[in-house]
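Two records follow; treat each independently.
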Amino acid sequence: MTESAANLTQKQRKIYEFIRQTIRARGYAPTVREIADKFGIRSPNGVMCHLRALEKKALIAREPNRSRAIRLLQEGPAGGGLPLAGRIAAGRLHEAIEQKEWVDFTNLFNDKDGNLFALQVQGDSMIGDHITDGDYVIVRRQPRAPKGAIVVAITDEGEATLKRWFPEGNRIRLQPTNPKQKPIYTKNARVLGVVVGVVRKVKH
């Protein structure tokens, strides 16, 4: 435990642990509402007071006006691996499955900032980019992506999918690279991260 963490109140420490465990389990932070529900805090302002205390002690950082934009500042992945945040649909939209596993890709990726995580692909909608069912994609957590990038996109309903990102006027096109599948059009998708690598276990 760091010195900053040791100086937390009991409630702050529990909230910090909940944030840490949630990020490790699924690759992104809980919302203010999720924290409030977890600890029986009646108002968002009550949660924000605790989050500001954690920020002041340099344990987390937050981006304004984003519901899940909480980052840990003093803890990297355990054992030098990357968090396996779940399985991501490369077909239809599908809720990401939370898992408490770690995948060690340290020799391939240098994650000094702790912003990388891994997802295991389910489906074949990205086969045009040589991403197939069962592969692991390595994702850099970031809120924006260049047009055409392969991203993990997440909707307001918490559904996640792996597609190419194409903003088009007042909508977003999530484009598969399997010619047999059609794009997904949505107004509410946002970027959770950009794919920076693919890892495949060879089957014999």
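The next record belongs to a different protein.
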Amino acid sequence: MLKPLADRVVIKMIENEETTKSGIILAGSSKEKPQFAEVLEVGPGTEKVKMEVKKGDKVVVSKYAGTEVKYEGEDLIIVSQNDILAVVE
């Protein structure tokens, strides 16, 4: 697994299948980028930044945040903790 450094977090976007009122299922490219993700790995933080998320958390992230990477066949994103807006409880 990727081990993020400093205040970085590895996340995987949660794909929500959307259906229009008429019953048409929208493909990933025809709708806006999802903003919900699952935290896969968390960096150690820094002296100034305490990590507030943990592995397994469901989070809301800024729409175009992070760096997309493909690792072991999975599309993952590495974001700064600052790009995480909320934890879903």
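Discussion point: The chain is about 0% helix and 45% strand. How would you locate this feature using only the token line?
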